[in-house]
């Protein structure tokens, strides 16, 4: 099992380049199979979730040619609408293949999804949307089966804001007959990116980025070349890494508008944040201030950035409140952080964080993707050596994480044996 070993105490200084948005890429890759023409997708992040989804797309017969950050996909050779469980058990976003296959072939069979255990993420809203378009859905032998003789546009109101359901329904509706209106739609940047990608293939989608999306179905989609937006969560993670290590980091290849909620909180807790056209600079020179934060759908503070701010506030002056309104299991990192000296009480969906002067290195375990990244940040700020186990979660969503951190002056290595751990300890003294 691979681990990260970290010697804390170095301020992060320098420049770091952000990769493509994982959450946008997953939707876009699924949508790419909806045409029989060749689609070229650029700025693809090099992370495990992407490799798993590309494996699933190959598995149903599509042609996939990957070269670095660029992939060519041709869906004309797809011979099956049934996705193999082996590809899917690791990632939730497999469910995007439901909307894509249902839109194109009017039938899809996809195993129930896996991924991080951060709380219940039911797919009932996805199925409700498919039913509204005229599909019959059922669960059989662990798979969701959706089929329709014909998909017809409809008015769909989502009971709760759901990124996954918005993207899935949008894909299916783009090849349905007539008009579809999705109300209470998710407004996240990756929803907009998937809509823009579908439109570049000939779909007719208006209103993405607002809470009402209007779609006029088309008969076929065509070839396109498309570049994925930068990853706002990767960017935010490096911004908080700068904050907790009292660093000075320029985060490049970002869209500052997508980072506004994160930036606002960093300024509130005492960081200097400077925005450029496609970069942000975060400087922290003193101990951070306390604040209160509540996770909300975009443009609110993102749930995927909650563990990172939790780490920052655990080192801040005073008492902070963090309220999680999206996923109920997002506080699983708290027990691990307390092993490093944090003082946190979780009551229901709120964490009361009493700021402490410093963390001390410890052996901790990553409970999920974002929590794992947050524990790495904690290790960078801690006194002594920290070992983070179960980093497979982190590798699902961060490309070359340890390399990028090392380029900023962090002492971090990926290890897999006790011998490598001892070697690192000897080297860093």
TrEMBL record:
Transmembrane segments: none annotated. Residues 7-405 form the Enolpyruvate transferase domain. Its EC number is 2.5.1.7. Keywords: Cell cycle, Cell division, Cell shape, Cell wall biogenesis/degradation, Cytoplasm, Peptidoglycan synthesis, Pyruvate, Transferase. Its main location: cytoplasm. The modification 2-(S-cysteinyl)pyruvic acid O-phosphothioketal is found at residue 116. One of its GO terms (cellular component) is cytoplasm. GO terms for molecular function: UDP-N-acetylglucosamine 1-carboxyvinyltransferase activity. Phosphoenolpyruvate binds at residues 22-23. The keyword Cell cycle applies. The keyword Lipid biosynthesis does not apply. InterPro entries: Enolpyruvate_Tfrase_dom (IPR001986), Enolpyruvate_Tfrase_sf (IPR036968), MurA_subfamily (IPR050068), RNA3'P_cycl/enolpyr_Trfase_a/b (IPR013792), UDP_GlcNAc_COvinyl_MurA (IPR005750). Pathway: Cell wall biogenesis; peptidoglycan biosynthesis. UDP-N-acetyl-alpha-D-glucosamine binds at residues 92, 121-125, 304, 326. The active site is at residue 116. It is found in: Cytoplasm. GO terms for biological process: cell division; cell wall organization; peptidoglycan biosynthetic process; regulation of cell shape; UDP-N-acetylgalactosamine biosynthetic process. It catalyses: phosphoenolpyruvate + UDP-N-acetyl-alpha-D-glucosamine = UDP-N-acetyl-3-O-(1-carboxyvinyl)-alpha-D-glucosamine + phosphate. It comes from the Bacteria. Belongs to the EPSP synthase family. MurA subfamily. Cell wall formation. Adds enolpyruvyl to UDP-N-acetylglucosamine. This is UDP-N-acetylglucosamine 1-carboxyvinyltransferase.
């Amino acid at each position: 099992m691979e681990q990260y070993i970290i010697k804390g105490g170095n301020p992060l200084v320098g420049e770091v380049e952000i990769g493509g948005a994982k959450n946008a890429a997953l939707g876009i890759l699924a949508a790419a199979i909806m045409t029989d023409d060749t689609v070229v997708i650029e700025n693809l992040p090099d992370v495990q979730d992407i490799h798993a989804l590309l494996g699933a797309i190959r598995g149903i017969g599509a042609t996939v040619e990957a070269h670095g950050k660029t992939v060519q996909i041709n869906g004309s050779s797809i011979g099956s609408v049934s996705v193999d469980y082996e590809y899917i058990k690791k990632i939730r976003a497999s469910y995007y293949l439901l909307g894509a296959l249902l839109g194109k072939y009017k039938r899809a069979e996809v195993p129930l999804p896996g991924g991080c255990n951060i709380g219940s993420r039911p797919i009932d809203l996805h199925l409700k949307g498919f039913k509204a378009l005229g599909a019959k859905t059922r669960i059989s032998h662990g798979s969701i089966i959706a089929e329709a003789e014909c998909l017809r546009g409809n008015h769909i109101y989502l009971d709760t804001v759901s990124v996954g359901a918005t993207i899935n329904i949008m894909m299916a509706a783009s090849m349905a007959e007539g008009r579809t209106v999705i109300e209470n739609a998710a407004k996240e940047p990756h929803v907009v990116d998937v809509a823009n990608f579908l439109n570049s293939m000939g779909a007719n989608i208006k209103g993405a980025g607002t809470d009402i999306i209007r779609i006029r179905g088309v008969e076929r989609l065509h070839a396109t070349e498309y570049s994925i937006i930068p990853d706002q969560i990767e960017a935010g993670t490096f911004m908080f890494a700068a904050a907790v290590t009292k660093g000075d980091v320029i985060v490049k290849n970002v869209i500052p508008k997508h980072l506004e909620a994160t930036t606002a909180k960093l300024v509130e807790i005492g960081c200097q944040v400077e925005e450029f056209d496609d970069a942000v600079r975060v400087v922290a020179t003193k101990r951070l201030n306390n604040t209160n934060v509540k996770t909300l759908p975009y443009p609110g503070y993102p749930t995927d950035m909650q563990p990172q701010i939790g780490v920052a506030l655990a080192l801040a002056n005073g008492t902070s409140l963090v309220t999680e309104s999206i996923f109920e299991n997002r506080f699983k990192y708290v027990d691990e952080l307390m092993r490093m000296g944090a003082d946190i009480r979780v009551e229901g969906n709120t964490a009361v964080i009493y700021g402490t002067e410093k963390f001390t290195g410890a052996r901790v375990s990553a409970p999920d993707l974002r929590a794992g990244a947050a524990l790495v940040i904690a290790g960078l700020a801690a006194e002594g050596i920290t070992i983070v186990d179960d980093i497979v979660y982190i590798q699902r969503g961060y490309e070359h994480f340890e390399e990028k951190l090392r380029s900023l002056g962090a002492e971090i290595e990926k290890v897999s044996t006790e011998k490598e751990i001892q070697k690192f300890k000897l080297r860093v003294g």
